[in-house]
Structure formats: structure tokens, C-alpha cells
Design brief:
The complex is a heterotrimer. Chain A is α/β, with parallel strands linked by helices. Chain A contains 14 helices and twelve strands. Chain A has one domain (about 1-45, about 175-475). Helices cover about 50% and strands about 15% of the residues of chain A. Chain A has a ten-stranded mixed sheet, sandwiched between helices. In chain A, α1 crosses α7 (about 225-245), α9 packs parallel to α10 (about 315-335) and α10 packs across α14 (about 440-455). The longest helix of chain A has about 40 residues, at about 5-40. The model of chain A is unreliable at about 460-475 (pLDDT under 50). Chain B has a domain at about 215-335: Leucine-rich Repeat Variant, CATH 1.25.10.10. Helices cover about 70% and strands about 0% of the residues of chain B. Chain B has 17 helices and no strands. Chain B has helices spanning about 1-10, 15-70, 75-85, 90-105, 110-120, 125-130, 135-150, 155-160, 165-180, 200-210, 225-240, 245-250, 260-270, 275-280, 290-300, 305-310, 320-335. In chain B, α4 packs antiparallel against α5 (about 110-120) and α8 crosses α9. Chain C has a single domain, classed as Response regulator (Rossmann fold, 3-Layer(aba) Sandwich), CATH 3.40.50. Chain C is built from five helices and five strands, in the order βαβαβαβαβα. A five-stranded parallel sheet of chain C has the order 2-1-3-4-5, with helices on both faces. In chain C, α1 links the parallel β1 (about 5-10) and β2. The model of chain C has no long low-confidence stretch (mean pLDDT about 90). The chains are: A alpha/beta, B mainly alpha, C alpha/beta. Chains in contact: A-B, A-C, B-C. Chains A and B meet through α1, α6, α12 and α13 of A and α2, α7, α9, α10 and α17 of B.
């Protein structure tokens, strides 16, 4: 084959793809900007105190699955019990921990077994017992002890055994802002349509100063790996999610912190225990059902910093997390492939699912083949370095530009990183990230694809590596 | 097109793509630098603005505290303060906000004085301008200001804003009606065309808590065209123990709308109404689970074991959820 | 000697007004913006009276009251809170506070109640 023609075709294809991708990002940026601007205006004169004293705020059940968390579970539950909200319960689900998680809880909170009858709307692994505290101060605490079944199964057990109509699913080690529930419940109250879920932005807690379960001071981590993820979270939330929220096309509410309409969650059958992307899959299934039933509905999104979480600081742990996210995305898209390009599902079918397919799933693969192609040309001695570097420069500067835009959004909206030197470090990270961090994440995604195709660790019975720190919350 | 392609293909080899790439890269780099400069500018601008705001608030609170608590305060200094420190838009905005905070925290004489100060500083002009604005968030803010300062605005404007297309403006407008009404705080409901969100209901309830006059008769709006308004009124009938209105709620036990039926059953439970149990028992079999659960709660709290037993046929059915609820109720009676 | 009052409150506007008003009334006023600062301040100082909110960051008003009642049981405490629920008010009194003022409040009334609480000791 003619070498020049080949490179020519590849170049054109590359340009077309680049134009599509960049216009996608451009739209995301514009929509996010509009959404943030509008949101900032909304919080004018509402008075939190009024709300906190109201007896009409819908009560919320906070579901927190715990697996081998004996080190921190007591502290975490204590801090959950101090969140400002007039009426809520905390349901901790001990998902068959092998350590002393349950005993720690029983000892600290004086729990006793509660033998009331319970109806299981969603089938789960065996429930060994439901515990309540004998102390009045902890009357809002319920602990469910069950056989190990994974995070999705644990959450389902929580859904079955909680009292209230709104459920808030969180990771037990998350740090919630004091007004987190109050803010997250807002979309459910202020809407004429049925609200099926609402989600918030996840923030990176690494290196922040934390006391008594509250963020005292926001700090920028010293580790590059954590800083790179901060940029990634900015891009994903402030630019991605915000834009999708404006289009009402959100497909994912992070498993680390989201609120759901219990009735509808039960109606669709709860969390899917057969996928590793249970958080995304649930929301997609709920949306799909509402659309199929032709009921008007919406999904809320709150951009304020409400929930802080530790992100992996080790390459290995990060690799496992991203590998899992990729599989979760693929599984969800596969289960709901009917929605793809289906005009019946409107934004969901024509924009959201295609976006997830091309940007989230295929992008790393295309990129990977691009790299292979370059390597091949090099091996054949056909690589024109001038051309290579010129392409490389375009891609590189584009990704830096995108990150810088995300930093700008953060500055414009919430400005959490207050020290001046933090800005310069973030900008520096934006320049280094495409070279040092991105290839690694891409490789983790490729591995995820390979693992899924080879049937490792996914469909059918899931071998369990635990909810414990590393492997959770898809961003 | 073909000629063009031939031209670039044969005349310049692959250099065209390199040139395009370099051009694009440079463009991106330029944008990056501009954005970084803009971020820095934004930082400085925000900081300066915050410093200015803080300085103004500092001066303002000193001034207001002096005005409120200093016996040697000179009246003339109000005019002076206005002329020097309540000039720019930012100053007016911040001053209004602070005065609102004062009025929310103080009652009695201090509250009356602070309202007087609002007019002496001529801040009502800004509020009126905001109300007439085409931007919804300004309309909401304007309504918030006038209702807290007790300023009457034109009736037609208020009604128009009550049915504004933004829910935030509607909320502030209905609070305006409650706060400024002398005798009938909820009469705005007659003129409300839009549904009431839960959020609005919470705020109405809260405003009613602080209402000193007689609580309105909620049965007046049980035929409102918005079901959310009816639901709200049924809730309030039980919240304020308006036993005289129970009769008027009973028909809703058989209302086709699930939400209203549920509220009606709840209302009966909270008011301890025995007669209602027999009414809901007749239709029990055809209700959905939400209503059935609500009815079982009603029986548990105000009904009898015999009444519960008329439903024992449920135990033979395959509705597991209701079976469990039935057994729970039975357990309660037999304990 | 001037009497010393500790004001624990997180609303900056209320803090400044109270400070101003109580200074005018002839008291020494120390301000703490949250429960933890209040505990620190109490370690090194003696006060003739404490005015506190109930909803405070970090250490709640109730915890603070318990602490004061344990360390210096004779220091009178006035609660200044938005709470209007009967049980909250009752709880406060059972913990031994002297007075409960609900927000919105009248500064003149507060000043009189402060005077009364101080005259009792």
C-alpha cells in the first residue's frame, strides 16, 4: 500500500475525530458554564434555619454499606450522626465483614437485635439480623448484618429495611458537609415533575485537614497522582456532569453520594448485583423505566461541594479502580444497548448513551490503536517525526486547554483551593498530566476491556475484593 | 475540490498537515495562556471585591449598631452615611442584605428601627427596580426584600409574580402575601394558578408558625383546581387540629387521585377519626399498596382488631408486602 | 470591676451587635465563633455570664452547657437560639441554664435579662 496515502487517510480520520471530540467538549463547556451561572443565582434568600426546623421536610434514610471497616467505622458513623437534617436515619449494612466491624458497632452504640417482621421487596443474600440501639441518642441508627453479597446486594438490603421514602446511598468513609442532605434533597422538593434521583459533586479529600469528621481546611495534595485526579474530577463534574444536568441527560450519579426515590428504585428491582458498575446501571434502568412508562420525570444535580472522599494515591490501586469503572461502563451500556441511538429515549438515546460509548468507552481504545499504529510505523521505519510531533502537539495542547478550562470553572464557581500557590500547582499539573497520568489511565481502561472480554471478574458470580477503600465510586 | 486536493497533495507533500497542526497547536497554546491570565485576574478581582465587601460590611455594622444602640447617635449621620457609603450598586446590594439579616434576627423596637433605616437609606428604590427586572433572580430578590421590609407593592404586580414562570419567584411572592396580609394570610391561594411545590409548602407552614392572628380555615381551598393546594390544605387541617373540617375531608377518602387519597387517610389517622375506618375498608381490595399500607396504619392507630380481621383474606392472597404489614398490625393488637 | 461575658455565636452580625450593645451596657465582652473556641477560651478565663447558641459548629451548645455546669456550676448561662420547640427549651432548662431567649430577639430585652441573671449571683 502506498505509504503516503495511508498516512493521508489516517490524518483525515484523525482530524474528523478530533473535530467531533473537540466540539463535544466545547458544547460541554458552554452548557456547564450556563448551568453553573444559573445555579449560583438560585441560592439567594433561602433560610437554612427555617428548613432545619421544619417538620415537613421528607425524612431520609442514609444507607452506608461497610465491608471490613473496623478501623474507622465507629468514627464514620458518629460523624454521619451529626449531619444537620431534621429527620433521618442511618442504616449501616455490614456486608459479611470478616473483621470486627459488627462487634465494634454493637459495643459502641449498645445495639440489640430487633425482631420485627420485614418485607423484602428486593431479593438479597441472607439477613442475619437487624440491630437497633438501646440509647435514645442513637435511635436513628440501624445496623443490618448480612451474608456477603457485594456492594449492590448490601444496598438492596438497606433499601428493604429502611423506613423512609428517600434513600441516600453513600460510602461509609465519605466526609459529608454539614448541609449535604439538606442540599441534596432540594431537587426533590422544588420540582413539578417526579424526581427519581439527585446527585452531587465528589471532591478529593486527600491532604485536607479533617477534624471530627469535618473538612476544616481544603488543601492541595502534594502527590502528583492525587492532584491529577483533582483535575480529572473538575473535568468530570464541573464540565461533564453539569452540562448533562442541563440537558437532563445524566446517566451516572456517583455511588459515593446520591439520593434516590425509594419507590421507583424498588419498582425497577433495586441495584443490579451482577455488574461492577451498579451505581450507573441503577440510574440508567430507572430512567429507562420512566421513559418506557411515559411518565415525566427528572434527575437533580447539586454542584456545591457536599461530599469529600480519599482518592487512590498508589498507581496499583488506581489501576484497579479504573479497570473496574471501564467494566462497569461497558456492562451498563451492554445491558441497555437498546437505548443506544433510539429516538424514543430522546436525549438519553440520541446523546447520553452515544456519548458514553464514544467518549468514555471507545476513546481509550481508539487512542490505544493510534499508539499501536505509530509504533508500527516506527518499526517499519516509516514514521515521519515531523508529522508525528505536529499531531502530538495538537492533542497535547488540547488536553491542557481542557484542564485549564476546568480550573477556570472551579475558580469561577466554588474556589475551594484558596491559596495562590495552589493555582500555579494546578496549572502545572495540567501541563504534566497528559504525559504522565493520562497514558496510565488509558492503559487501565484497556485492561478493563480485556478483562471483561476474557470474562474475568464480572458477569455471573463476582469474586469479591471488598468495598474497602480502593475499588469504589465511579466518577 | 479535487484540484485543491491535487494541489496540496502533489505540490507540498505532507507539509500542509504539519502546518495546520502547528497552527492549531499555537491557537490552543494562546487560548491556554489567555485562560491562565483570566483565572489570575478572576482571583484578584474576586479577592478585591471580597475585601471591599468586608470593609463595607464592617463600616455598615458599626454604623447600624451605633444607630440602634448608641444613645448619642446623631440623626444627621444617616444622611451622611447614605451619601458616602450607599452609592454604588454593590454597596446598595450589600447594605440591603445586611439590613435584612438584622431584621430577621431582631424583633421589637430594634426591628422597627431597622426598617426605618432601610427607607432613610433610600434602598426601596433598588428593590422596586429589581421587582420590575426581566431577570428572574432579581425579581425573586426584590420580592424577598419588600416582603421582609413590609413594603406594599401594586396588587396586580404581586399577583403576576405569584404566577411567575420561575418557581423561585413564586415562592418569594407567596411569602410576600403571607407576611403582608393583615387578616387573611392564605387568600393568595385563590389567585394561585400554579401547583405548590413541597418546598413552598414548607415555607408557608413556617410563615404560618410565626403568624400571630387566627389561623385560616383550610377547608376554603378544598375545591382548588390544583391538587397540590388541596393536599396541602388536608395536611394543615390535621396539623392545626381543625376538627370542624373533618367532614369535608372524608369525601377525599374515595378520591381518584392517589396523593389526595393518601393525605386524606393520613389526616384521619392524625385526627383519630373512627368513622373513616369503615369507609376505607369497603374499597380496600381495589387499592394499591401505598394506600393499603396507609390504611393499615390507620386501623392500627384508630381502628379495632375486629376491623383488621375483616381484611384477613389478604393473608390468602399473594401480596407479600401487605401480608407482612397485616401481620405487623395484628401483632400490635395482640400484644 | 466590669463584669465579663462570653458570647458564643456563629452569626457574625449577631455577634457584633451583641458585643456593641453589651459594651455600651458596661460589660467586658469576649466572643467565640464556635464551640471549640469557646471551650478553649473557658480554659484560661473566668466569666460572670455565658450567652450561647445551641446549633454551633464542632461542639454543640448542649455539650458546651454541660461542660460549663461541670466546671463552674455557678456561672449563669443564657441560651440564645432559633429553636422554638418545647422539648429543646425544656432540655436546656433541665441542664441548668438560667434563661432561654428565642431568635428573633429584642436586644433591649436581652440586656435586661443579662442584668437580671448577673444580679442573682
Amino acid at each position: 500500500m502506498n505509504y503516503d496515502l495511508l498516512v493521508d487517510i489516517a490524518s483525515w480520520l484523525f482530524l474528523i475525530y478530533a473535530v467531533v471530540v473537540s466540539s463535544g467538549y466545547l458544547f460541554a463547556a458552554v452548557f456547564s458554564f450556563l448551568e453553573i451561572k444559573e445555579y449560583k443565582r438560585e441560592n439567594i434568600p433561602t433560610d437554612d434555619v427555617t428548613l432545619l426546623q421544619s417538620t415537613s421536610l421528607p425524612p431520609v434514610s442514609v444507607l452506608a454499606p461497610a465491608y471490613n471497616e473496623e478501623a474507622n467505622v465507629v468514627e464514620n458513623v458518629k460523624s454521619l450522626l451529626t449531619v444537620s437534617y431534621p429527620s433521618y436515619e442511618i442504616v449501616v449494612i455490614n456486608d459479611g465483614s470478616k473483621d470486627n466491624t459488627l462487634q465494634r458497632l454493637i459495643d459502641t452504640f449498645d445495639l440489640v437485635k430487633d425482631e420485627s417482621l420485614r418485607y423484602n421487596s428486593i431479593p438479597t443474600k441472607e439477613i442475619r439480623g437487624v440491630y437497633m440501639s438501646t440509647h435514645k441518642a442513637y435511635k436513628n441508627l440501624t445496623v443490618i448484618d448480612k451474608a456477603n453479597g457485594g456492594k449492590a446486594d448490601a444496598l438492596n438490603a438497606g433499601i428493604n429495611n429502611c423506613k423512609h421514602d428517600l434513600i441516600c446511598c453513600i460510602d461509609v468513609d465519605c466526609i459529608l458537609e454539614d448541609d449535604a442532605l439538606l442540599k441534596l434533597v432540594n431537587p426533590f422538593l422544588n420540582n413539578e415533575k417526579t424526581v427519581i434521583a439527585s446527585g452531587g459533586i465528589i471532591r478529593v479529600a486527600n491532604s485536607c485537614i479533617i477534624e471530627d469528621g469535618r473538612i476544616i481546611e481544603v488543601r492541595l495534595p502534594d502527590k502528583f497522582l492525587a492532584r491529577a485526579q483533582i483535575l480529572e474530577y473538575f473535568r468530570a463534574f464541573l464540565m461533564g456532569r453539569m452540562a448533562w444536568s442541563r440537558l437532563d441527560g445524566l446517566l451516572l450519579i456517583s455511588g459515593a453520594f446520591g439520593m434516590f426515590n425509594k419507590k421507583i428504585a424498588i419498582e425497577v428491582g433495586g441495584y443490579n448485583t451482577k455488574t461492577v458498575g451498579e451505581d450507573m446501571e441503577l440510574l440508567v434502568r430507572m430512567r429507562r423505566m420512566m421513559r418506557e412508562k411515559n411518565e415525566p420525570y427528572t434527575v437533580g444535580f447539586i454542584p456545591d461541594p457536599l461530599c469529600w472522599t480519599e482518592v487512590p494515591q498508589q498507581w496499583k490501586v488506581l489501576h484497579r479502580q479504573r479497570n473496574r469503572w471501564t467494566r462497569g461502563t461497558m456492562e451498563t451500556l451492554w445491558i441497555h444497548r437498546k437505548m443506544l441511538f433510539n429516538p424514543r429515549f430522546k436525549v438519553l438515546g440520541m446523546l447520553s448513551t452515544p456519548y458514553w460509548m464514544f467518549f468514555e468507552w471507545l476513546a481509550p481504545i481508539i487512542e490505544f490503536f493510534g499508539v499501536l499504529f505509530i509504533v508500527l510505523l516506527y518499526v517499519l521505519g516509516r514514521l515521519d517525526w515531523t508529522i508525528f510531533f505536529s499531531f502530538f502537539a495538537v492533542v497535547y495542547f488540547f488536553s491542557v486547554l481542557y484542564s485549564i478550562t476546568a480550573i477556570f470553572f472551579e475558580e469561577y464557581s466554588f474556589q475551594q483551593y484558596k491559596k495562590p500557590k495552589y493555582i500555579f500547582r494546578l496549572v502545572g499539573t495540567a501541563f504534566a498530566e497528559p504525559l504522565l497520568y493520562h497514558p496510565f489511565v488509558m492503559w487501565a481502561a484497556i485492561k478493563g476491556n480485556i478483562d471483561l472480554i476474557r470474562g474475568k471478574n464480572s458477569w455471573g458470580t463476582m469474586s469479591r475484593t471488598g468495598l474497602a477503600n480502593p475499588q469504589k465510586k465511579q466518577v | 475540490m479535487e484540484k485543491f486536493y491535487d494541489y496540496i497533495y502533489y505540490n507540498s507533500g505532507l507539509e500542509w498537515i504539519v502546518n495546520v497542526n502547528i497552527l492549531i497547536s499555537l491557537l490552543f497554546l494562546l487560548l491556554i495562556l489567555l485562560l491562565i491570565l483570566f483565572i489570575l485576574y478572576l482571583r484578584v478581582y474576586k479577592n478585591l471585591r471580597n475585601i471591599k465587601k468586608a470593609e463595607h460590611v464592617e463600616k455598615l455594622t458599626d454604623f447600624i449598631n451605633g444607630y440602634l444602640f448608641d444613645t448619642e447617635f446623631e440623626e444627621a449621620s444617616i444622611e451622611e452615611f447614605r451619601a458616602h457609603h450607599v452609592r454604588s450598586k454593590l454597596q446598595k446590594k450589600v447594605t440591603t442584605k445586611e439590613i435584612l439579616i438584622y431584621s430577621q434576627n431582631f424583633k421589637g423596637e430594634a426591628n422597627a428601627s431597622i426598617k426605618k433605616l432601610f427607607f432613610r437609606l433610600e434602598l426601596d428604590g433598588l428593590a422596586f427596580k429589581e421587582i420590575a427586572s426581566r431577570k428572574w433572580y432579581l425579581r425573586a430578590r426584590g420580592m424577598h426584600t419588600v416582603s421582609n421590609m413590609g413594603i406594599k407593592i401594586q396588587e396586580s404586580t404581586a399577583v403576576r409574580l405569584l404566577n411567575d414562570k420561575r418557581v423561585e419567584v413564586r415562592l418569594q411572592s407567596l411569602l410576600y402575601f403571607i407576611k403582608l396580609s393583615q387578616k387573611y394570610p392564605l387568600n393568595f391561594l385563590y389567585r394561585l394558578e400554579e401547583p405548590l411545590t413541597i418546598w413552598q409548602q414548607i415555607h408557608i407552614e413556617d410563615a404560618l408558625k410565626g403568624y400571630k392572628e387566627e389561623i385560616p380555615d383550610f377547608s376554603k381551598w378544598l375545591n382548588h383546581k390544583q391538587p397540590t393546594v388541596i393536599g396541602f390544605c388536608i395536611k394543615q387541617i390535621s396539623a392545626f387540629d381543625q376538627y370542624e373540617n373533618v367532614e369535608k375531608v372524608i369525601p377525599f377518602l374515595e378520591h381518584p387521585e392517589e396523593m389526595l387519597k393518601k393525605e386524606a387517610v393520613r389526616c384521619m389517622r392524625k385526627m383519630g377519626n373512627h368513622e373513616s375506618v369503615d369507609i376505607v375498608l369497603t374499597n380496600f381490595a381495589s387499592e394499591n399498596n401505598t394506600i393499603k399500607k396507609e390504611i393499615l396504619k390507620l386501623i392500627k392507630e384508630v381502628g379495632s382488631y375486629n376491623q383488621l380481621q375483616t381484611l384477613s383474606y389478604e393473608l390468602n392472597g399473594d401480596n407479600e408486602e401487605i401480608k407482612i404489614e397485616y401481620l405487623k398490625a395484628e401483632e400490635y393488637f395482640l400484644k | 470591676m466590669k463584669k465579663k461575658i462570653l458570647v458564643v455565636e456563629d452569626n457574625p452580625m449577631v455577634v457584633k451587635s451583641l458585643e456593641f450593645k453589651l459594651n455600651k451596657d458596661g460589660y467586658d465582652v469576649v466572643v467565640a465563633v464556635d464551640g471549640r473556641v469557646a471551650l478553649d477560651t473557658l480554659k484560661n478565663n473566668d466569666f460572670d455570664l455565658v450567652i450561647t447558641d445551641l446549633m454551633l459548629p464542632f461542639v454543640t451548645g448542649s455539650q458546651l452547657i454541660e461542660h460549663i455546669k461541670k466546671e463552674t456550676p455557678n456561672t449563669p448561662i443564657i441560651v440564645l437560639s432559633t429553636a422554638t420547640q418545647e422539648d429543646i427549651i425544656m432540655d436546656a432548662f433541665t441542664m441548668g441554664v438560667d434563661d432561654f431567649i428565642t431568635k428573633p430577639f429584642s436586644p433591649n430585652e436581652l440586656s435586661l435579662r443579662v442584668k437580671r441573671s448577673l444580679s442573682k449571683t
